[in-house]
Design brief:
The protein is α/β, with parallel strands linked by helices. The protein has five helices and six strands. Helix 4 links the parallel strand 4 and strand 5. The longest helix has 12 residues.
Length: 170
């Protein structure tokens, strides 16, 4: 006999959202939609932005309350980014995980192109996910179809959630 219970549970608003944006070429159109979505983050939630690219250091992200001024600064910063080539997203994801794990109910949102080649080992990120003491969720949203070697390596980890895109990125 199998007995199941289904219960409605209220959605928990994350205390910190760390957004990782792939710096690879072709992301410009997706970033425009992301900029629109940033306005919907409650002011009580902390937000940080990390762009995964070769030109910028990923460690300069500082979580701040999502006030209109902070969101405006994130928009300005993201508007100046040059999206070129293929970028290694793993260092940015590791940094994002560390930032999200500093608080209870932290979330990483990864917006990216297909990752057809694994440019570095995923073991550092996998260890963070497996050994964390605070529950952090990683929502990954791929902007177009294609292989994703990073997610393949993280398959089976409960903290990694795939967001199915059925329409607008927003």
């Amino acid at each position: 006999i199998i007995r199941q219970n289904i219960q409605a549970v209220p959605a928990a608003i994350p205390s910190r959202v760390v957004v990782v944006v792939d710096g690879s070429g072709g992301m410009e159109s997706s970033v425009k939609e992301l900029l629109e979505a940033l306005a919907g983050i409650p002011e009580t939630t902390e937000i940080a932005l990390i762009v995964a690219n070769d030109d910028q250091k990923v460690s300069d992200a500082k979580p701040q309350k999502a006030t209109p001024a902070v969101v405006g600064e994130l928009r300005r910063r993201l508007g100046k980014v040059r999206f070129v080539g293929g970028q290694d997203n793993l260092p940015a994801l590791e940094t994002a995980w560390d930032l999200a794990a500093q608080v209870d109910n932290g979330v990483v949102v990864w917006l990216h192109q297909p990752q057809p080649v694994l440019l570095a080992s995923e073991s550092g990120l996998r260890q963070r996910i497996e050994r964390t003491t605070k529950p952090v969720r990683l929502f990954e949203l791929q902007t177009r179809n294609g292989p994703d070697r990073i997610i393949e390596k993280l398959d089976g980890l409960a903290a990694v959630e795939h967001v199915l895109r059925l329409g607008s990125l927003r």
